[in-house]
Design goal:
single chain; 426 residues; mainly beta; five-stranded antiparallel sheet; four-stranded antiparallel sheet
């Protein structure tokens, strides 16, 4: 393990040198925030008083606003305090990296916008529905919008939560089960507009959707914050060609990694699934029941699992993403033996995950799945306070794999940072 004094903090920040106070953040990590050539960085910023999408030319420094929102933030997952049916859905913004097209929801309109600011409406959100994180297929022809019966987030002063996220105090998935609410995988035609199909999934709250990179008929989706059996209810696959649904993670003992004797159980906590470029691998993370944290890998073609248990002291919530070579990046879990954790009141700690949101490091993580080993290479302290969704670091590699971008709020405002992805321990 490298010595603590060798960790050098590096900051190259989009907008951090400006004096104005505003939040700037990356797009959600299920899509890239960078164009294919890594020359343009796409961001969400409230610098004009309302959340809007901007892009920054990383060569010239030019920044340009693409969306025209003047109505605040739309209510939905995970922005529970937004306005009903009005505003930009920050959760909806996703990038087609190959074509420099941004997709997003404005009010009840499902839109796309190009680099010149030309906006096209391709669909509408039905009445009494809530939306979440969207995804565009790799061929650019399809957009999947997860939509749930609006009752799931229908709360009043007695059931409204507190803190920055206003997370409802009731069990959302519990309500979905008890009241037989449904979610819908709504797939839109990005070229001609219009709804191509809608797959109803009963008793399910879907917030994350991701097309398989090689097969747009295959959509990975989730059950958000499962009130029971999170270990086997979190990750699902829908095959539109066969109209079949199946779960991804099952109970079992045929794990190939180093689990320290822990089997996969329904009572485990599992989260944040992500496809590999070849569409055959799904990575995820979570924690074993009454056990350590874990990072997992599922091989679709072999129907096989590799799971690696993290050290017992790695208890800080984090996200795992990967580059095009399947090298991981993480914004939590890692710690030095002599680290003293910052104690803060964090409203987002009130969710179903078992780990506190007090991770401090951005780490490059090189896995050896067959041997059950992870090589942790801490790159810098991100120092984010994790207070609310926007302050989650959500680190992502650029396409070249040379740099990592992440969010952080260590003072008043959320900002975007960039660091080299290869550790420098000179």
């Amino acid at each position: 393990m490298e010595q603590k004094h060798t960790i050098k903090e590096r900051i190259l920040v989009s907008g951090c040198q400006l004096q104005e106070h505003y939040d700037t953040q990356l797009l959600y990590f299920t899509c890239s925030s960078l164009s294919d050539d890594d020359k343009r960085l796409y961001l969400i910023s409230n610098r004009d008083g309302h959340p809007n999408v901007f892009f920054k030319d990383l060569e010239t420094g030019e920044e340009r606003q693409l969306t025209r929102n003047r109505k605040g933030n739309l209510k939905g997952y995970v922005y529970f305090d937004g306005v009903l049916n009005e505003g930009l859905s920050k959760a909806s913004v996703c990038l087609d990296t190959h074509r420099d097209l941004i997709y997003y929801i404005q009010d009840t309109h499902i839109c796309k916008v190009d680099l010149d600011g030309n906006i096209t409406v391709i669909g509408e959100v039905p009445d009494n529905r809530m939306t979440a994180f969207t995804h565009v297929s790799d061929d650019g022809k399809l957009l999947c919008v997860p939509i749930t019966d609006g009752r799931c987030l229908d709360f009043d002063p007695e059931t409204e939560g507190s803190g920055l996220d206003k997370r409802p105090v009731y069990d959302i998935d519990g309500r979905v089960q008890e009241e037989n609410l449904s979610s819908y995988l709504c797939v839109f035609d990005t070229e001609n507009g219009g709804l191509l199909y809608e797959k109803r999934v009963p008793k399910c709250w879907i917030t994350h959707v991701q097309f398989n990179p090689r097969n747009p008929n295959l959509i990975m989706y989730n059950h958000e914050w499962p009130s029971f059996d999170c270990g086997i209810r979190r990750i699902w696959l829908y095959n539109h060609e066969t109209d079949q649904i199946r779960r991804v993670r099952t109970e079992g003992v045929d794990t190939l990694g180093d689990t320290k004797g822990y089997a996969r159980k329904a009572s485990d906590w599992i989260c944040h699934e992500m496809w590999s470029d070849d569409g055959n691998i799904i990575i995820y993370h979570g924690g074993y029941t009454n056990g350590p944290a874990l990072v997992g890998r599922y091989d679709l073609s072999r129907d096989s699992y590799w799971e690696i248990a993290l050290p017992d002291e790695y208890k800080a919530y984090g996200h795992f993403t990967m580059d095009h070579q399947q090298v991981l990046c993480c914004d939590g879990y890692f710690k030095f033996a002599d680290d003293v954790k910052i104690v803060r009141e964090n409203s987002t700690d009130n969710g179903p995950d078992p780990h506190k949101k007090d991770g401090e490091y951005i780490s490059r993580v090189v896995p050896d799945w067959d041997k059950g080993l992870l090589q942790w290479q801490p790159l810098c302290k991100h120092r984010s306070d994790w207070l609310g969704q926007d302050a989650h670091p959500h680190p992502v590699y650029n396409h070249a794999g040379t740099h990592i971008y992440f969010n952080s709020r260590s003072e008043q405002d959320v900002k975007v940072y960039c660091i080299p992805a290869i550790p420098d321990f000179r």
